[in-house]
Amino acid sequence: MRISYSGLETFSNCPAKYKYQYIDRIKTPKSKDAVFGTLIHECLRMFHDPSQTTPFSEEELLKYFTEKWNSEIYQDKQEEAFAFHQGIEILKKYYLQNQNISFNVVNLEILFKIPIQDKLHQVTGRIDRIDKLDSEAGTFEIIDYKTTKKMPSQEMIDKNFQLSIYYLGVINQWPYLQKENRPVKLSLYYLRHGEKLSIIGNKQGVKETQQKILDLINQINKSNFAPISNPLCDWCQYQPYCPLFKHKYIKEKQPTANEEQIKNIIKEYFEIKDKHSQDNKRLTELKIVINQYCDENELDRVFGDNGYITRLSQQRFTYNFNKVKEILEPIGKWNEILTIDKTKFKKVVNSLPYDIKKQIDQAKKLEREFKTITISRK
Ligand code: SF4
User: Fold this and answer.
1) DSSP β-ladder status, 2-4 and 121-133
2) What is the pLDDT of residue 134?
3) How many A from CA of 21 to the centre of ligand 1?
């Protein structure tokens, strides 16, 4: 299989989106954020272009951005003005932070290929910039620009899959870096925040990254490409094809004959849910009043026209399970009472190293599959 890093990332976020984009190859217009991000990348490419005799001044950088700006993709003037302002801010900040640094740019927008499993598979990608760092014993710095609004924690960067893939891409291009165990700085530059978060790539993580890639490729080969609702859904261009969103589009563009019926059913479902939660709230209030009445009159049972209500004294105990274990283990009964706390289990598994997580994952089997219904309010 030949797959790009973005393909792997897309599959990890949502298998359905991966299918629409990379298997069905459904063409969709680029999102506003993607167009914005591409223009900012282009500006920075111009700023660092080693073939320019003199580097871009701030004025030239902003002029380039303004000339390439596409106002047509925005819904209204206000939205466009906000996005344009954001772009200018990003570039001004970048210029201010970088104007006096003399970069030794090795290359820009470099394509890489990583052979996996004896070239059976190939992962491809594009690195925004590679610099040579003279000050750090001849190592290189790989830089990827981000225009996202959120900046992750350093802990997340330490485990960042994209950076570990980029490292594989670089050592495949220059194998001596790995052979000589030369550290490579791997950075994500969060442009809106003006912060560059870095880790040092080295050969220790190589096997794990290769294994992760292979696991993802195997998952893709076995996948039924079910949609996974995730924070990026709001920006997904495939909503009209996705079972989680396409009803919105059917409703607007080609309403079916039973649309009115399902609309009423949804309305009724919400009403019953609302009534149910109101009833529960009222039941809690009534219980408080009944308890107070019983306390004041030393009663444990009260009679009404349609029956009576009894309150029972409940006691909860906890055991010293170390002692219980001492008693039950010798008679072979201890294991019979052990149950797994699934919430705690998931928490522990998430904290484990990748290879152990994988072994645990392989131990799971599908018990049954069923659909549940949840509601989300507007
Ligand atoms: S809308 Fe969300 S769930 Fe549907 S395909 Fe896109 S990312 Fe996946």
Assistant:
1) parallel
2) 79
3) 11
Mean of pLDDT over the chain = 91
Q: Which residues' Cβ are closer than 6 Å to ligand 1?
A: 14, 16-17, 227-230, 232-233, 236, 238-239, 242, 244-245
Residue at 285 is within a domain: no
- Residues 66 and 212 reside in one and the same domain: yes
Closest ligand 1 atom to 229 CA: 3
Question: Would you call 203 exposed, middle or buried from its count of C-beta atoms within 10 A (0-12, 13-18, 19+)?
Answer: middle
Structure tokens at 310: 């009894």
Q: Which of 48-62, 156-170, 172-186, 244-258 has the lowest mean pLDDT?
A: 244-258
Output the six-digit token pair for 134.
């003279």
Q: Are residues 355 and 212 in the same domain?
A: no
- Residue 375, pLDDT > 80, answer yes
Q: Whose CA is nearest to atom 7 of ligand 1?
A: 233
Q: In angstroms, what is the span from residue 236 Cα to ligand 1's centroid? A: 6
Q: Is residue 315 part of a domain?
A: no
State the closest ligand 1 atom to the C-alpha of 237, by its place in the atom list counted from 1.
6
Range of the domain at 74: 2-132+165-180+201-237
Residue range 65-80: mean pLDDT, rounded: 91
How far apart (Å, rounded) are the C-alpha atoms in residues 239 and 227?
10
- Give the number of other Cβ atoms within 10 Å of residue 319's Cβ: 8
Residue with tokens 């701030």: 58
Whether residue 330 is contained in a domain is answered as yes
Query: pLDDT-derived band of residue 138, with 50, 70 and 90 as boundaries?
Result: low
